[in-house]
């Protein structure tokens, strides 16, 4: 158990458009989901923490109006990159923490975003 | 502020060798420690989770140990195989609801 999926796995879009990435916990309920960004050959950078039914908490330096996060259910969180620009091109990874479980995160397979 | 260090950044070994990947952290007050594997262009796969009350965990050819007093964790890989080639990340939680603090990872290459 503890499988997390992301959709899409890859997306290419034009500059100025918005892109939505979905993160789903397939076999467990997740009260908390996390969104990370990873640049080539670097470690993961936490962008925001989302709790089901409440507003996301963003890390310092992350624009909340640009990276919209919605955690509407215990199995789904979405990240929308608004008005994407080439510098937003990156690998986005989500993770989820089980409801009532120990503090352990389960990661999705990531989404490669390329903004032309 | 908790800092997690993994040295060296890259490691190349011949197939069959037993190896140890090191992880050090600055604050011994940790909650859980987790080792992950990441293949190029992929997400993270959890390998082992060590809770603060535990000293080690084993899964197959992998063994992870935790020594909070010295601020160290090691991931032991027995009889390494080319399929073990990947980046190995050490990460820890400082509390029951805390975020993960990651090391920068060790990129392992196992030569056939």
Question: Could you characterize what this model shows?
Answer:
- The complex is a heterodimer of chains A (116) and B (112).
- Chain A has no helices and eleven strands.
- By secondary structure, chain A is mostly beta strands.
- In chain A, strands 2, 4, 5, 6, 9, 10 and 11 form a seven-stranded mixed β-sheet that branches.
- Chain B has 112 residues and is mostly beta strands.
- Helices cover 0% and strands 55% of the residues of chain B.
- In chain B, the strands form two sheets. In chain B, strands 2, 4, 5, 9, 10 and 11 form a six-stranded mixed β-sheet that branches. A five-stranded antiparallel β-sheet of chain B has the order 1-3-8-7-6, with no helix packed on it.
- The model of chain B has no long low-confidence stretch (mean pLDDT 93).
Beta-strand residue fraction of chain B: over 45%
Largest interface: A-B, 21 and 24 residues
What is the percent of helical residues of chain A?
under 10%
Rounded average pLDDT of chain A: 92
| Silhouette of chain B | globular
Low-pLDDT regions of chain B: none
Query: What structural category do the secondary elements of chain A indicate?
Result: mainly beta
The average pLDDT score of chain B comes to: 93
Q: What portion of residues of chain B is helical?
A: under 10%
Helices and strands of chain A, in order, run as EEEEEEEEEEE
Q: How many extended strands of chain B?
A: 11
| Multimeric status of the protein | heterodimer
Our measurement of the CA-to-CA distance between the termini of chain B, rounded to an integer number of angstroms, reads 41 Å
